[in-house]
Amino acid sequence: MELDLQRALNFGLRGELERDPDVVLLGEDIGALGGVFGVTRGLLEEFGVDRVIDLPPSEGGIVGGATGMALYGLRPVAEVQFADFVYPAFDQLVSEVAKMRYRSGGQYVCPLTLRLPYGGGVGGGPYHSQSPEAYFAHTPGLVVVAPSSPRQAVGLLRSAVRSNDPVVFLEPKRLYRGPAEDVPGEDFTVTLGRARRAREGSDVSVFAWGGMVGATLRAAADLAGAGIEADVIDLRTLVPLDIEAAVESVARTGRAVVVQEAPRSCGYAAELAALLAEKAVLYLEAPVTRVTATDSPCPRRLEEVHLPDEHRIAATIEEVVDF
Amino acid sequence: MAEEARSLISGDVREAEEVLPDLTDGDLRTLYEAMILARAVDSRCSGLHEEGRIGFYVPSAGLEAVSAGSAHAVAEDDWLFPSHRDVAAFLLRGGSLRALFDQVVGNGDDPAFGRQLPGHHTLADGRFVSVGGPVATRLVQAAGCAMAMRLRNHRRVVLASFGAAAAARSDFHDGLSLAVRRRAPLVLLCRSPVASVAEQPGGPLTLARAHGVSASRVDGDDILAVYAAVVQARSRALDGGGPTFIDACVAAVPARSGDPGSAASGGPDSDADPVVRYRRHLERRGLWNAAWQEELDARHRARIREALAAASAAPPPPPASVFEDVLEERHGALEEQRRVLGHEGSPLAADGDSGEEEDAG
Q: Closest approach of chain B CAs to the CA of A151, in angstroms?
């Protein structure tokens, strides 16, 4: 089936609701409206109010409620309308969800999936554009996933819902109505914690996730014309990180660029750069270099100045190759 | 003028008998035993704090009626989202003294390996959900858990207990709002200090009613009144009536960490002490005498001494436990950190060598 991200996620969620009666969806306007991005469209009609649960716009309530359901043994999939609005639920996530297994010695676990439409590229301004992955990746006890395409999203979503760990699932909203991709009809999954090579090359390793993989691949295609072959690694899962795949790539190319949609300082790219400095320094022929958003909130106008795009990615790759 | 709290214990014995016909003499004595055991355990834990053997403890002396009365009123399959002041409930839900002291000491026999501060218990077998640090977050989870019970058509309820300070948090409103909307089978048990109730006629009770939750005030130092209120709330929840809020007014909420000058060290010894009040009630019913008390005290002292000694003698948590229970599987970064720090299974731990030779070259 050729599906865009929005339809692919709808397909994935429907499959999980059919497969496992313990799967329930919670969120604001996910029922009759079908979610602000239409991801849950039609699911209320198909599965009813007990499985597709509309809740008031209180993110602490949505996530806290999902946590209680997960503790009882259900597999809730909660949606917060925009990742930018997840902060009222931060206490539940960081203090409760992330620590439940640890503090109870495994007696209680929270197998919940938290779907967060994230990132820019849609002119959303300061409150509809953020990429908050670093907050969650910094918190022990959470799995952090960022799919880059419809097919990846379905495979990762299935693994997230079936995982016994809490998963923060970051959906690049710029892709909801973006390019369609063939999604197999059968029940395939993508293992959490494994990166994938999105493009093979031998001159430079470029690491990206979620909404930045597409721009990175476009940059790599442009550079191929100039004789630069980039090895593009789609991390897919930020926690646990597939560091072996990253080091293996850098061992072959000797150069590394990390692309991150979030602001520059203390982002996830910094973590990956530090790891490569620790584990791959002997292979490196140039500094590990980041392409990121600016250290400013995301502006509605001039978003293109704030966010990285294929041109900035390509320019940085060239600099690193020419170093 | 503050709304009056319902009381049963001090009035005519026949009234209590009529309201609570299901409580046998055995039940009544079991409750008393649980109360005084909880008091003795709490006193010992506060002592451990005073002796400097543990760095933190939240006393529960004076709260035995709320904790024991509510825990006895729910069924085995019901779930509790308790607080760190629910020592009596922990014991009534099947928690052993040994398990309690394992957690307080934080030894290697504690299932959570001493990760949590003393008194933050977990007892999955007793459906006593892990007590966390933040105030009131559990109220939302309790509502979600109760919603899950309804979805699965389980005839069960959730009992959440908390202090009145919870009403200052947004979680309080999130929890009540969820529970009301979904008619969740939830019993919300709030411990409100009598003094603050007198000063503030509103408070948690008013807020709960504003959410449309059925709410009442009981004498939280009266174990029978608490028990009756929770039984009624539970039955209402099972009948599809949704959540009930019980404002349990208590004379003493002990200070944190066992200040010797506070009620914490010995509990309130005035007429407000829930243990003393219940003892008088039992005496009037011919269910208490000094000889039984002496026997109980001696037995409890011995059991506590034995459990604490065993917990203290148990090995400390193994260092490798730091790396467990973060996620279901120990992921690569954690595995590497464990190896580098030389814990269990690493070359460093195995032979004291640097373990570098294998990788050399």
A: 25
